[in-house]
Amino acid sequence: MVTQEQVITQLKKVQDPELGLDVWTLGLIYTITIEKTKILIKMTLTTPMCPFGPMMIADVEKRVKELKGVKVAKVEITFNPPWKPTEEIRELLGV
User: Fold this and answer.
1) Strands 72-77, 29-35: pairing kind
2) Which of 63, 64, 68, 95 is the most buried (most CB within 10 A)?
3) Is residue 89 part of a domain?
4) pTM of the model
């Protein structure tokens, strides 16, 4: 069975092209639910109008499906709560 750590490793390979950091480090991933061969990920985007949103969602699903034993990877987008960068992320981004 796939572990949460394996899923996180895959999520760290998905970059936000505007910010140059991965979706896990940015804090865009809210929950990871593992149901045998199905992985459900609840995540957000940096803004509701993010032009790279569809690409990032597709990349998250693709990367998670690369894990052995995963048949379905599904992303649910939410903006509740809205994304807010941590102080550490703000420093990494230079803001």
Assistant:
1) unpaired
2) 64
3) no
4) 0.92
